[in-house]
Amino acid sequence: MRCPSAVFEELESRHYTMPVGETDAHNSWVTARFSPHQSQEHILYLGDDPGNIGIFDVRKFHDRSVPIEERQLHFIPAHDGAIMDIVGVPNKEQQIVSISGDSTVRCWDLTQSAADRKSELFYGHEGSVRSICFSPDESNVFATGGRDGKIKLWDMRVSQIKKKDLDCRLATTTYETAHPSSQLEKPAPGTPRSKAKPKYVPWSVTSVLYLDNYHIATASSNAESGIRVWDVRMPTRNGEGRPVRTFRIPTSKGQKTFGVTCMSIDRFGSRIFVSCTNSTIFEYATLSASLEPVNNYSGVKIGDFYTQVACSPVADVIACGSEDNRALMFDLQDQYHYMNDRFLPDEVEKRRTRFPKYSLGGHEKKVLNVGWSANGKYFMSMDEGGVRIWNEPRHRKAWPLNEDDPIPAPETRDLGLSYEQVKPFEMTDPDAAMSCMDSISISPRQRLGSVGSSPQKNRGAKRRIVLTSPFKTIGSPRLLNRSPMAKICK
Question: Which CATH number goes with the domain that contains 255?
Fold first, then answer.
């Protein structure tokens, strides 16, 4: 079903705030993610530079009159380095996994008291862990990628071992050089020449994404290495694997080198969206044989590897952070056909380059983190100065049956100084010119049988399809009494 535009056009944010932490070591939150569980739609995970994790109730965390115990559900001194990401464990509402710049991965049990809380350590990366993703239907299996260029697959059921006097788990599978560069790695000093094997320096792995239970997609800090898809059932040899396919990222000679910041998969698992530091988002069809992007999206400003892209769980809409102090939303619904559509799908508007439809401002710094809650009720945008939670207005106006019908919005709203509402995206003159020239659409015609539809115009008789031979058959009744030579000459 097509999601009404009013769901996104009327999103509002009533507060711009940075939730406070319990200790002086906390300064500001740098990463955020909603809980993946539908019963915890209001739960937000936050991480900061010193390595602390805060878990907040977004319905209350802006209200300083509410006791901090109700606003901040947990505060965990988790790592010795910056928190890179926090994810909830599927089917386990009281467990989270965090990755950090201290090269470790830790699993936390939120049912434990703060005084007795201990973590399960996953050890093996040699640099900052940049990305993590759980298998869709398996709460014990997840994948990570790091600046060391390695991809690691982990299983929580593996027995712990002692490593540097710590109980930890090791990876079940490791891809040592997932995205190799053209530069050869120098052998360690003292290595015999006979044992020194040529090895390419890997690019940093910036994003890991499960496509299904058996395939993961990975991306790196260099776009030329592409989006690589790995079959996790295939064994590696000496830590090296072979991708089953590689999606190509368009690059050109003379263009500044760029890389991938984040990947996100849509609600159907058939499309992945890839944000890059050249301020472009590429869309790939995972079920297609094509290795080229099917669409690309412009209008965002991406300059570092911390900007996120996210897909809505309830509609064909994506969002991305931007360095011009706002989050941007792209409405993709015009590209697809829905059961409640009034227009034929073969004549919807099509452009090779698409621009955002909605702008979510009210930020003081560049927006890096964006994301929806599990059921799409809340949307989050965060910069280093504060967090905004966007949702539908309290006084919700009725959705129009026909979006052309004017329905006035309620006049009474409690507008604070930090109030912000979604605004239409305004293109610059060069972007508007590009969009106008790039358009190849025509006015969509209404579907037959829909309300207010007009009958189809007569397009004339169809071209006759020839299904018979143009030569006369020898067995024709008129030729039965003729000689064979007369039949052939005829």
Answer: 2.130.10.10
